[in-house]
Amino acid sequence: xxxxxxxxxxxxxxxxxxxxxxxxxxxxxxxxxxxxxxxxxxxxxxxxxxxxxxxxxxxxxxxxxxxxxxxxxxxxxxxxxxxxxxxxxxxxxxxxxxxxxxxxxxxxxxxxxxxxxxxxxxxxxxxxxxxxxxxxxxxxxxxxxxxxxxxxxxxxxxxxxxxxxxxxxxxxxxxxxxxxxxxx
Length: 184
Prior knowledge:
By secondary structure, the protein is mainly alpha-helical. The chain has one domain (3-178). The chain contains 9 helices and no strands. The N and C termini lie far apart (34 Å). The mean pLDDT is 93.
């Protein structure tokens, strides 16, 4: 897998790219080292730089960036467990490798939209990346989880509700542990 080609293809031609992704192995180590580690760094690094522009203390900005980066890995993995567990409920087949590939590659636009964090006033534009990530998740459910296309919307909505719970729980935990808002 060529990183640049994969990013281009998943964004520009997802319906053609999902079957190619489906045929590849879904090794956790490989996906995390060769994809998540690189693409998830975009919002972490850009957020760090943006916080520096705002005058956030270097140490606090570094802690927030590292936390955001690490939670990207954790969130993708937990969400893959959920996607895999929900598959039979929506007429799909359990396949953790497929679920992990689905969560990793569908997060691509959200992570890339992290470039907007360089200028803190533009951070709200990450919503565009989030919306496209939701679209990718929806289009990836049938080929990767072998769920019927007519159930993909409900499957996707259920996964998104689970993601919302994960984000809220992580936000609260980080706020309690670090002592400042994880949503900053």
